[in-house]
C-alpha cells in the first residue's frame, strides 16, 4: 500500500513535469505566455514585421544581438541594458561596434507592456523577434522559440571581450569558447552559418589582406581573387568604417551558401576559415552543403544557443523597460 502511494505520487510528478515542459520550474517551454499574455507572440511578430519591412538589415542585426546576449551571462537580455553613472554596460564595450536594433526591442516591449504589464521578458522578446525577423525577411518558417526566460540585472562591458569569440580565433579557441557555453563543434559550424547574412567591418579582417604575419603578406588560406576584391572594397589596412558582405553573392539570403564560399576559401574572418582546419568541423561543413540539413540543423542549434544560462522560475526579473533594471 505504502509503495503504491509512493508510485502514485511519482507518476503524478512525472505527468506534471511533462505538462509543464520541464521539472524544477527550470526549463523553457513552448507558449510560456499562453495563459498570462495570450497575444504576446502575435504582438512581437506583428511589430517585428513592421520594423523589418522598413529595414531589411534588421534580421542580421537581431541575430547577432541574440548571439551576443546568450554568450555573455546567458540569454537574459544583459546586452540590452544601458550604461549608468557607475557602470559601463555590455553595449558600450568594444566588440559592440555594429550592434543595432535596441530601439526595435524597446518598441516591442512598449507594446507588450500596454497589453500585459510586467509579464513578457526582454530576453524572450529578443529571442522571438530574431526568429520572426528572419522568417519575415526570408519568407520561410524557421525554428520554434521556447519561452520563459527572465531578465538579468547585471551587464558589464569588460565581460564581453572575455566571453565572445573573436574574429581572429583559431579552431581550438572557437571550440573552447563554444564548449564553455555547453555547445558542440557541430553547433559551432552550424551557427557560424549565421554569417550567411549581414556585413563585417574591414578592420576585423584587414590583417588577412595586408600583413598577416608581420611581413606585409596575405593570409595564404584566403582565396587570392577574393582577397583582391576585398582590397578594392576596403580603404586600406586601418579602415574601420567600411563594411562588406559576410557571404558575398548571397548576403541578402539566409541559406547555406556560406558553406559553399567557405569551401572555396572565401570565409571572411579567420574564425570562418578555421572551420576547415579540423577534421570534425570540416566534415560538418561538407554535410551542410545540403540545404535541408542546414535549415534543420540551424533551428536545432538556435534552440540550444537560446537556452544558454537562462534565468527561469523566480530568478531575475521581468524588466519594465529593456534598457534599465527595475528600481525596486
Ligand atoms: C563563431 C564565432 C563567431 C565570431 C568570431 C563572429 C564574429 C563576427 C564579427 C567580427 C562580425 C562583424 C561585426 C562587424 O564588423 O560589425 C560578425 C557579424 C555577424 N555575426 Fe558573427 N561571429 C561568430 C558567430 C556568430 C553566431 C553564432 C551568429 C548567430 C547565430 C552570428 C551572427 C552574425 C551576424 C548575423 C552578423 C552580421 C551583423 C550585421 O550585419 O550587422 N555570428 N560576427
Ligand atoms: C500591428 O502593428 C501596427 C504597427 O505597430 C499596429 O498599429 C497594429 O495595431 C498592430 N496590430 C496588432 C494586431 O497588434
Ligand atoms: C550603481 O549605483 C546604484 C545606485 O545609484 C546601485 O544601486 C548599484 O548597485 C550600483 N551598481 C554598481 C555596479 O556598483
Ligand atoms: C559602443 O560602445 C561605444 C563606446 O565604446 C559607444 O560610444 C557606442 O555608442 C556603442 N554602440 C552602441 C551601438 O551601443
Ligand atoms: C590557437 O591560438 C592559441 C592562442 O593564441 C595558441 O596558443 C594555440 O597554439 C593555437 N592553436 C593552433 C592549433 O594554432
Ligand atoms: C606589418 O606588421 C609588422 C609587425 O607588426 C610591422 O612592423 C610592419 O610595419 C607592418 N607592415 C605594414 C605594411 O603595415
TrEMBL record:
Gene3D superfamilies: 1.10.520.10, Peroxidase, domain 2. It catalyses: 2 a phenolic donor + H2O2 = 2 a phenolic radical donor + 2 H2O. Removal of H(2)O(2), oxidation of toxic reductants, biosynthesis and degradation of lignin, suberization, auxin catabolism, response to environmental stresses such as wounding, pathogen attack and oxidative stress. These functions might be dependent on each isozyme/isoform in each plant tissue. GO terms for cellular component: extracellular region. Keywords: Calcium, Disulfide bond, Glycoprotein, Heme, Hydrogen peroxide, Iron, Metal-binding, Oxidoreductase, Peroxidase, Secreted, Signal. Ca(2+) 1 binds at residues 69, 72, 74, 78, 90. It is found in: Secreted. Belongs to the peroxidase family. Ascorbate peroxidase subfamily. Residues 27-326 form the Plant heme peroxidase family profile domain. Heme b binds at residue 195. Ca(2+) 2 binds at residues 247, 255. Substrate binds at residue 165. InterPro entries: Haem_peroxidase, Haem_peroxidase_sf, Peroxidase_pln, Peroxidases_heam-ligand_BS, Secretory_peroxidase. GO terms for biological process: hydrogen peroxide catabolic process; response to oxidative stress. Residues 1-25 form the signal peptide. Its cofactor is Ca(2+); heme b. One of its GO terms (molecular function) is metal ion binding. Transmembrane segments: none annotated. This is Peroxidase. The active site is at 68 (proton acceptor). Its main location: secreted. Its EC number is 1.11.1.7. The record marks 64 as: Transition state stabilizer. Binds 2 calcium ions per subunit. Disulfide bonds join 37-116, 70-75, 122-322, 202-234.
Amino acid at each position: 500500500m505504502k509503495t503504491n502511494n509512493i508510485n502514485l505520487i511519482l507518476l503524478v510528478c512525472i505527468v506534471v513535469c511533462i505538462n509543464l515542459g520541464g521539472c524544477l520550474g527550470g526549463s523553457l517551454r513552448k507558449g510560456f505566455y499562453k495563459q498570462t499574455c495570450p497575444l504576446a507572440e502575435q504582438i512581437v511578430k506583428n511589430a517585428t514585421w513592421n520594423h523589418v519591412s522598413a529595414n531589411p538589415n534588421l534580421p542580421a542585426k537581431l541575430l547577432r544581438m541574440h548571439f551576443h546576449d546568450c554568450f555573455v551571462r546567458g540569454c537574459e537580455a544583459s546586452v540590452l541594458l544601458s550604461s549608468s553613472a557607475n557602470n559601463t554596460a555590455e553595449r558600450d564595450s568594444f566588440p559592440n561596434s555594429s550592434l543595432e536594433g535596441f530601439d526595435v526591442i524597446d518598441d516591442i516591449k512598449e507594446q507588450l507592456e500596454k497589453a500585459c504589464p510586467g509579464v513578457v521578458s526582454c530576453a524572450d522578446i529578443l529571442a522571438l523577434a530574431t526568429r520572426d525577423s528572419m522568417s519575415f525577411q526570408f519568407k520561410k518558417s524557421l525554428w520554434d522559440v521556447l519561452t520563459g526566460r527572465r531578465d538579468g540585472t547585471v551587464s558589464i562591458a569588460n565581460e564581453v571581450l572575455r566571453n565572445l569569440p573573436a574574429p581572429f580565433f583559431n579552431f581550438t579557441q572557437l571550440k573552447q569558447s563554444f564548449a564553455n557555453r555547453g555547445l558542440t563543434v557541430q553547433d559551432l559550424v552550424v551557427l557560424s552559418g549565421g554569417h550567411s547574412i549581414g556585413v563585417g567591418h574591414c578592420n576585423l579582417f584587414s590583417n588577412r589582406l595586408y600583413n598577416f604575419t608581420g611581413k606585409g603578406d596575405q593570409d595564404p588560406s584566403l582565396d587570392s581573387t577574393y582577397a583582391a576584391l576585398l582590397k578594392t572594397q576596403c580603404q586600406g589596412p586601418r579602415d574601420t568604417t567600411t563594411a562588406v558582405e559576410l557571404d558575398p553573392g548571397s548576403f541578402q539570403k539566409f541559406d547555406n551558401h556560406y558553406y559553399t564560399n567557405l569551401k572555396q576559401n572565401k570565409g571572411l574572418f579567420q574564425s570562418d576559415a578555421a572551420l576547415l582546419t579540423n577534421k570534425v568541423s570540416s566534415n560538418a561543413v561538407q554535410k551542410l552543403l545540403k540545404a535541408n540539413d542546414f535549415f534543420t540543423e540551424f533551428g536545432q542549434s538556435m534552440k540550444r544557443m537560446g537556452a544558454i544560462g537562462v534565468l527561469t522560475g523566480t530568478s531575475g526579473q521581468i524588466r519594465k523597460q529593456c534598457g534599465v533594471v527595475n528600481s525596486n
